[in-house]
Amino acid sequence: MKSHRQQRGISMVEVLAAIAIIVILAALLFPATKFVLGKNNQTAALVQMRQIGVAFTLYAGENDFRLPNRQKDSSFDKWPRLLAKYLGDDIRVYAAPGDPNNYLNLGTDPLDNSHNHTSFIMNGYNDLGGFTDDVEVRLTRMDASDVILLGTPRSGSTHFYMDMLEGKTGNHLDVLNLAAYGDGSNYLFADGSARFITKHDYHPEMWLVDKSFQVP
User: Fold this and answer.
1) Cut 0.85: pTM above it
2) Number of structural domains found in the chain
3) Which of 72, 116, 143, 144 could form a disulfide with 191 if both were Cys (CB 3.0 to 4.6 A apart)?
4) Gap between the Cα atoms of 189 and 11, Å rounded
């Protein structure tokens, strides 16, 4: 009987030891797993941005090389709806993985003209003409590799446009998420390239549009 109880006691100790080891390993692996998942989401969102970049190029090609202009009135189509026909079945690219407020998670309409339910925010070009709707930019006039077209908004934001001059400190601080993926975020440039830029390397001047880009 004594021998049996000793064996049973040793067995319980071994079980507790195994549980402790599992807990320790889980604690060690969790940060690495979280990093890998975040990196996968960042890479997938970058691919989606490139697809949207193709849609921008196709839209410009059919509209005298003009990019979608800034629209305040919800009766006019905003950029998500204007680009939708060039995305076809790939409309899901408007929902970035890892974005808790993407339209697939919330069941909202990504083509809504009153609130932006995509995971991205477009350059509003408001350094050219304030917040008017008549500012248009022609793609062929731009130094396209240096001008951001799309960024990542803060969680819960429904802004369609990143307006440099709007808000107390500018939308690039009030609305833009500079650290959507760890120490940086993804950006789509006017030449169709998409890049991950750290907070250290990011500069708001990347959103500025030279007046020579404007359609007369």
Assistant:
1) no
2) 1
3) 144
4) 62
